[in-house]
Amino acid sequence: MYRFVILSVVVVSALADDMDIRECGRIFHPPPPGCCKENNVVKNKEMLADELKECFDAPGPKDPVKCELDLCIAKKRGFATDDGKLDLKKFEEVISKDVTDKDVLDEIKTKCINGDLNNYGPPDFCDFIKIKHCVTLHLMNQCSEWSDDDKCQKVKELVGKCAKII
After folding, report:
1. pLDDT tens per residue, range 98-108
2. Cβ distance 39 to 100 under 8 Å?
3. Any residues with CB less than 8 A from the CB of 147 and at least 6 apart, and which?
4. Comparing 14 with 52, which gets the higher pLDDT?
5. Closest CA to 52 of 67, 73, 69
6. How far apart are CA 157 and CA 153, in angstroms?
7. Which among 43, 130, 137, 159 is placed 20 to 30 Å from 37, CA to CA?
8. Secondary structure of the chain in the HEC alphabet?
9. Where is the signal peptide (predicted)?
């Protein structure tokens, strides 16, 4: 009897954790525009937008599973290998130049670069999307001013919860 109770608790806990992680996916689909009014941890945002314009302006649909947009960005920023894989060492160099806040950078290094990217997207998503989700979550968690809109306040709560569990 005790074995059944212990097994039930373990199974329910594992399912709850998995449900929580899946709920976190709502942060990115679609990403909440305008919810974070002020976040000063990334420098040179305007320059980045110009540098990556070609990737966003490329013709045709952007299939998230195929990862064309994120691969284009990674190539432009220099953290994609020649065969189209994520180079974590190069990514760390790039993100270290972009993120000004040491605590946020340390969190990104711990959770995204040295952590389990599989928590940040389904198995068919490429690593570029998963690391983007990870970095986005931890940057949003540092947002200093959120919109008062109800939807944004729910996103804020979810971001705080997700940053703790994954």
Report:
1. 998 999 999 99
2. no
3. 34, 35, 36, 37, 153
4. 52
5. 73
6. 6
7. 130
8. CHHHHHHHHHHHHHHHHHHHHHHHHHHCCCCCCCCEEECCCECCHHHHHHHCHHHHHCCCCCCCCCCHHHHHHHHHHCCECCCCCECHHHHHHHHHHHECCHHHHHHHHHHHHCCCHHHHCCCCCCHHHHHHHHHHHHHHCCCCEECCCHHHHHHHHHHHHHHHHC
9. 1-16
Q: Which residues contact 142 (CB under 8 A, 6 or more apart)?
A: 39, 41, 101, 104
Token pair 């953290």: residue: 79
Return d(Cα 23, Cα 140) in angstroms, integer.
16
Phi, psi of 86 (to 5 degrees): -75, 125
In the chain, the domains with their CATH numbers are: 2-165 (1.10.238)
CA atoms of 124 and 65, how far apart (whole Å): 6
Give just the sign of the alpha carbon dihedral 3, 4, 9, 15. Answer: positive
What amino acid is encoded at 161 in this protein? K
- Residue 78 identity: G
State in Å, rounded, how far the first CA of the chain is from the last one: 33
Position 152: which residue type?
Answer: C
Kindly report, residue by residue over 8-44, the tens digit of the pLDDT. 223 323 333 454 677 888 887 766 678 888 776 666 5
Distance CA 76, CA 4 (A): 54
